[in-house]
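INFO batch 0412 | record 1 of 1 | parsing
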Amino acid sequence: MVLRRIVLSLLLAGAAHSGAHAQGDNLGSVIDAGLAELARRQQPNGSYENDVHATAQAILALAQSPRKYTESDGPFMRKAVAWLASQVGPDGKPAGLDGGAAVGAAMWMRAALATTHSEVGKAATGKLATWLASPAGKIPEGKPADHLWTATVTAGKDAGEAANATASMLAALATVRSVNPGDFDRLLEALPTVLTDVAARFPDLKLAAKDAAPDAWAKVATASLLATLHAPAGFEEASPRNLANATRALTICADHLPKSGDGESPKAPPLAGTPRKVEGDLKAAYKEAATAGIAYLEAQQKNGRFGFMGHEDAGITALALSAAIRTGRRLEKPLPPWAEQGLDWLVSLQKKNGAIHSGGLAVYTTSAAVMALADGGRAKDAAAIAKAATFLKVAQLDEAEGYDKESDWGYGGIGYDGNELRADLSNTQFGMEALHAGGVPADDEAMQRAIVFLQRCQNNPEFNPKPFEREDGQVVKSGTDGGSGYAPGESKAGLVPNGDGTFTSRSYGSMTYALLKCYLFAGLKIDDPRVKSALQWIGAHWTVELNPGFDPKSAPNAEYQGLFYYWFTMAKALDASGLNELTGADGVKHAWRDELLKKLLVTSMNEGFWSNGKSGRWMEEFPVLASSYALIAMDHCLGAKKAGQ
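INFO prediction complete | emitting tokens
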């Protein structure tokens, strides 16, 4: 099996291999994909392989991942916790097991159920803890190595899978440390004995004789794991237990590797430019800036494809093509041959399930591709758009995947890759706009389901009354300002303490405009109380100078994070609203189209590009991305001009 080969590297001799390695936060997409595959293997009864060890390991892999999934995220956790709790006997001993096997299983089950937020999970955890503290559940003082072997390789059941044993040992040490530090110390002392035992059982497994520095083994393990896990068969051939152990091992590696900040991009090479001077007629200034913008994009493409840092990227290509097509149409220019090539390339990337991407970020890239194809207005792309819309509908978290409208926070939302286990408003707004652009009507079931998720993102207690208990134990309840964070109980602008031990997600500009746009695409009218509430926040925080809602004290230039994304989303949402004026907190009327257009013009360079020089978060210092956002936003400021007009 492919997974067998990859986890062999976790404790290999020769941990000093040199070469490139992924940093901790670059493991996220691989871990996400592995966990999504793991969730797909769940049995109808909620278990994994109908086995307490596999189910406990799956729960731990999900709960201890960078996203720290909880029961409220969906059935892959909620039903698994319920099934595992049902396997705890009245006295706290795992049902149907005895001796060392029962002790090992109880350790895994207690560690897994300790992540629970439900009463049934907490009750089962208490029973297991009581039994483990009894004479029957004690680790034999003279045999800690035997116990570790039992807990990790489950009494020889998987003795033929050296890779699983190796990854499982690494994961087990972290588990034991978190639930019983005393046991951990004894087990750590026994580790050399255990490694010797493993080496004797599996002669082909060359284990390191002594512990390497954490960052050294983590770098080697990460490089090897990533290299093989990117092969599709790496997940398809793996058992649920192997998937759980491999993703947990990657998470442990990630914890020992340096991390860059959330959303930070690799540094773009500095690009000198001359700021544009804007005087007089804005439409004349727009024509100059737009002409220069198209010329800049044309110079950056190769066969209609765009990218960054020397790598072509389907998502950035789609955004750049939308910008070029819309701007060219505004200037009454024909579609250039390179744009045709780019659209053809996007169509060529379409998968059997309808997704359009060149690897990763399937929802974002498919959504951007649909918008580009719709902007292109070519009749031959209608079938590709329809297939992509089907993919986006399938990617929505709903009853088809076992999600419950009342219990699961993500119900109705969409995540990153179409197999994502947690939804967010950014992906959801891209997906809903793509469906809208692809001709899906507002009364479609997918659009209507999304309203449930949108309400849970909004700080409006009338429609979002239920508090959220996060994975870190913090309880987040809705605020009253009408704005929105990034996801239920989460905001990229942080949390605000309420003074009673609870918190509220900070509303911020780009996500509040995303919320407004999605409500409108789902058919809500301007006088709907949810729409009015969002517009109330927008009016109270009206500005084109920064992305409002971020605490300036939280980080340098925090209020400029995602500024171009903010302008891009603002223009689309307000254009969709049909409003031409907004009333600010001071009672002053703002002609948003002119104010935003002027701001975009004065931030452009005569050389035809834009770049966020104040914050590199979310890749906005890369000129192709920022320029695409800006050109599309300006087109909406002037009133959308669609294909064929």
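INFO post-check: The CA atoms of residues 440 and 522 lie 10 Å apart.
INFO record closed
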